[in-house]
Write a structure and sequence with these properties.
single chain; about 300 residues; alpha/beta; 12-stranded mixed beta sheet; about 20% strand; binds S-adenosylmethionine; binds iron/sulfur cluster
Length: about 300
């Protein structure tokens, strides 16, 4: 088991395999994109597999692949196939914007992916364009359809943004009526995009819940899975569930079980730190597995 300095069991890695993206969600990235990393600054597939293999031996049980947009990365399916062969790794999940994902779903199923998070902030084409600056809603909906067709559990992630997609909250909730999806509303975080930079968040988790309650007074709290970042609810008669992620107003620190690795190989022990060690640089400097393991343990 991997236990950190606060006695928390760390068993979940969020691995960002690229910094690049084919959307430009205004709360995440500027319209012109970021200063993309040069290829040599990204970890290679071999480096990714090496660090994942080591971390799984140390106690990581679940890996979430994220980005940027993970499906932008070349040969991602080949990498996922190799990753899925790691002994001791119980679950691989992927967070995707769904633009390039639909045709890959049969292969993802074959690899053994059982759950995917699909980002979908709106069901309206114009609002999708205004949020992501791209006209790709149809691709995302196709991905959702394919995931459901292949019996892959779908968690839909919608960032709630004042003045942008409030009119989407109820239509998104309604998706869970007939579809076995978990629709999760996320408080907007004041990150590096051009989103709101508030001192207090208007659409916090309480306001989001009350807004849904107004329309569905029968909504019921259901138990949250261990380490869950979402408060979970069910509306009687619905096939799916509703989740609310208090990303901004609530700290999950006490039950946090995760570490992150950025596309350039930086290990973060907290979402809000700037990184503790650069694993890629250590590997390229010739660290053997023992030295790497010690570096990770020291970081934790
Ligand atoms: N590109 C993929 C996607 O959008 O699903 C994966 C990476 S994206 C950074 C992961 C998740 O973070 C998405 O669900 C996105 O909506 C969420 N996210 C990004 N910026 C956010 C912000 N400022 N506040 C809340 N959630 C944010
Ligand atoms: Fe791309 Fe995901 Fe960021 Fe949107 S949230 S710009 S899809 S990385």
């Amino acid at each position: 088991m991997l236990i950190d300095n606060h006695g928390r069991q760390i068993n979940y890695l969020r691995l960002a395999v690229t910094d690049k993206c084919n959307l430009r969600c205004f709360y995440c990235m500027p319209a012109e994109g970021l200063n993309w990393l040069a290829k040599k600054e990204l970890m290679t597939d071999e480096e990714l597999l090496r660090i994942c293999s080591l971390l799984v031996k140390m106690g990581i049980e679940k890996i979430r692949i994220t980005g940027g947009e993970p499906f932008i990365r070349k040969e991602i399916i080949k990498f996922l196939t190799e990753l899925s062969k790691l002994n001791g790794l119980q679950q691989i999940t992927i967070t995707t914007n769904g633009v390039l994902t639909a045709p890959l779903v049969p292969e993802l199923k074959k690899i053994g992916i059982r759950t995917m998070n699909l980002s979908l902030d709106t069901l309206d084409r114009d609002r999708f364009f205004s949020i992501t600056r791209r006209d790709e809603l149809h691709c995302v909906l196709k991905t959702m359809e394919q995931l459901l067709l292949h019996n892959i559990d779908v968690k839909l992630n919608a960032v709630v943004m004042d003045g942008k997609n409030i009119e989407d909250i109820i239509p998104l909730v309604k998706l869970a009526k007939d579809l076995p999806v978990s629709v999760r509303f996320i408080e907007e975080m004041p990150f590096n995009g051009e989103g709101n930079h508030y001192t207090s968040l208007y659409w916090d988790h309480i306001r989001i819940l009350n807004f849904i309650k107004d329309k569905y007074p029968g909504i019921q709290k259901i138990p949250d899975a261990p380490y869950s970042t979402s408060y979970n609810y069910h509306i009687p008669g619905f096939k799916g569930n509703i989740g609310i992620i208090a990303a901004y107003t609530r700290s999950f620190c006490g039950t946090c079980n995760r570490i992150r690795i950025t596309p350039h190989g930086i290990l973060k022990t907290c979402l809000y730190d700037d990184g503790v060690i650069n694993i890629k640089n250590l590997m390229r400097a010739g660290f053997d597995d023992n030295n790497l393991e010690n570096a990770v343990l020291n970081a934790l």
